[in-house]
Amino acid sequence: CSSFGQFQARRAKIRYKRAGQKPEPVATLNGSGLAVGRTLAALLENHWDGEALYLPEALRPYLGGASALRPES
Predict the structure, then answer these.
(1) pLDDT (tens digit, 0 to 9) for every residue of the chain, 73 residues total?
(2) How many Å apart are CA 68 and CA 45, to the nearest integer?
(3) Where do the structural domains in the chain lie, given as residue ranges?
(4) Which of 2, 19, 70, 73 makes an SS bond possible with 52, Cβ 3.0 to 4.6 Å?
(5) How far apart are the first and last CA of the chain?
C-alpha cells in the first residue's frame, strides 16, 4: 500500500473529531476507500453471465453509461 495522506479522505469527506477539537480529515492508504478485490469479486459473482459483466445502474455513469462490459474478441 502507498500513503495518500488526506487526499482520499478529503474527497470522500471522511473526518475524525478528537474530544474538544474540530473535525479533521483522516489519513488513508491507497485503496482504503474501497476493498477493491472484494468489490470486483462481488461484481463478477453477481453480474457475470459467462459472456458479459452487466453493470449495476449506480456504476454506469462512471463507465460512460455502459450497461455491460464484454471481453475483447
Answers:
(1) 566 778 888 888 999 999 999 999 988 777 666 777 888 899 999 999 999 999 999 999 999 999 999 998 6
(2) 14
(3) 1-33, 35-73
(4) 70
(5) 34
